Amino acid sequence: MSERITYFSNNDLSLWYYLPRVESILRNFENNVILSDINEVIELYHTTLFIDNGIFADSWTESDVNEFKQKSIAIKGVVCKHFNQFTGLEVPEIYDQLDYNYQTTFWEIISKYKLWDLIDNDLLAKILNENENVIYQVLHYKGIVEHYNVVLTQYFKSHPKTAEILLSAFIEKDMSNNQNSIYYIPQTLTFADKERIIDNYIDAADPNPNYLNLILQITSKDRSNLKVSPKIKIKAQKVATKISDEFFKEKNTGIKYGISVQISQEKGIPPVKIEMSKSSLLLEYVYSEEYILSCSGIKHLENFLHLFGFLQKHALISFVFHSHGATSFFDYLGIRAKNEFPSDNLNFHLGFQTAIMQTAAYMQTLANKGIYLEDYISEFYNKVLLSEYGYKGLNLNIPGRNLSWLEKVRMIIPEIESVVRQYNLYVLEGDIDPNVFVLTDAIKITDCNSLIPKKYIYLTDSTEQAPNILCRVMKDCFSNQSWLTHVESNKDKKYDSLYKLLQKENIVYNNYENYQKQEIDWLIDNQYLQKGSDGVLDFVNLKQMNMLHDLYKCDVCMYWNYDADTRIILDDYINKGYLYFENTLLSHQEQDLYSYVFNNERFSNALAYRNKYLHGTPPINVNPHKVYVISIMMLICLLFKIKHDLQVSFELKQCRNKLSTGN
User: Less packed terminus of the chain by CB within 10 Å, N or C?
Assistant: First the structure.
């Protein structure tokens, strides 16, 4: 890490590392200071950002803070004075002297203090053409883009690589959530200009396949900023495919990983064996055909729960995407569009494909013996839910065995939508009257309500204006990027979070470095950590931390899954605005999964099977057999979700009845 002070954001962990140097500079600053190094000038500017953003050391007194605020004002005057002493001819040489971290700050100062006389249009054009990194730096500042609009527009038109900037500004998802990821685009750049730049980029010698993929993600939602014709999209797809084919043809070595699902005819083996292949990174799931065929009736459907684990803790679908289920290497390797579902995330991809293979293998194993899994799905919905919970839905019409895969797909998807619509009516009305059902409006799968009050709990977003304390707690305690996970005295033992470290090891407060103690002290002051008489750190309330870990790991938790003490904590967080709840059948992550599979409302890269198969000619390059298997898989999960919703609602009613009768 650079010794020179750099302010990145209020959420950056380096803040506490730099604070001692910030204090030293502020205490020793004098108005008549003479500076010869441009990097010293910009470092002074960065110290003012700490003060402006309220980053103060706990040891500072009120007198210190007031003194440093006054010195911060004086420093800004020194910085401006120093910049005003430059001449335009000196700027290229001065820029070359800048530390890498300070190059963008140079332009920030130009924009903030409107030092336009320092750089005219010709000089900026010269700097841009001599250093290809400058364009990425100046576009972060609206004032610069507005003042040098003509120069920047001409630069875009003459440099096809600026297509990457257009795609980053309008299409790419911001993974960093900071100021330096924002680009301002010259207003005089027309839609035709932008399309021509993108077209020229595709024709360039070395287009980046990640950005070619972003071109494919441009949708009607982006028309206010960027438009490309279908021909350009097809062209981008062909070039991306060519690059990919050449890459794997030339570099066919590397790490191979994947999954395998097998139904074994070997007698006497357990229902499931899961093991890693000795020859490759292949995770093998081996299921016993003998066990599967020994099951009967609804037990076949229950195997998707107990054998395959389709639902896990909190009755959440196990193969949804989790924001913290990413691997640090694979998930950030590429570039993602703003409205793109992260289908290439390693954990999601393996989980989703495993579920598809499990469903297909199970259906085929039964079909080989003349057993139709769909019959049990129909029985589960039409009879089991009625007998166990009094839920009387309309008959679930399963596709006939002799229909083509295409016909089955076109029949099953409307049935899935009908199930959702029926259950939503049941939640609202208490029963499903066929006459009322006919008159109800269609609803999206993602919009179905729940019988359970205060069902799913979510973390409220944290902003600089309204910081959420839990975001900081979770980052400190559960993230594998947290500095608090690394302790010199324990460096030989690897833990991926403070949460696991403190439960396995006795970690003494004084074993942490001073820059780490700042955050440890914050956790102690806010009563998440405690320090024993021997200095050993521990969590104040492990139940609380277990609940927060669930929330971090799954992006959601279910309120009624916790005991009364933990629910009191949840209620307190909700009242403070740190958490909020929703009463829906599906969690946000499950909603995203169903939207990704069935429609393109949320995601530019959605599978959108409903839209593709129920409206006109089906897609040429999609196997309807696979689509049907996926649809059955999603229907099974939906029925499990309904059953769980009914079950929890029933149990809550029983509890209320006991309380009201005093039993």
Answer: C
